[in-house]
Amino acid sequence: MTDSSSDAVRPARAARTSGTVRIVGAGLLGSSIGHALRLLGVDVVLDDASPAQLSLAIDYGAGRTEAPGDQPVLIVVAVPPDVTADVIARELSRHPGVVVTDVASVKLEPYLQLRSRGIDLTHYIGSHPLAGRERGGAISARADIFVGRPWVVCRDDETRASDLAIVEGLALDLGAMPIEMTPQEHDEAVALTSHVPQLVASLLAGRFVAAPEGSLRLTGQGVRDTTRIAASAPELWVQILGANASPVVAVLDSLADDLRAVSEALREPAAPGARRALADTIRRGNEGVERLPGKHGQNRRFEQIVVRVDDTAGQLGRLFGDLGDLGVNVEDLRLEHSPGAQFGLAELSVVPSVVHEAVAGLEERGWKIASVPHA
Question: Can you give the three-state secondary structure of 237-304, one letter per residue?
Answer without folding.
Answer: HHHHHHHCHHHHHHHHHHHHHHHHHHHHHHHCCCCCCHHHHHHHHHHHHHHHHHHCCCCCCCHHHCEE
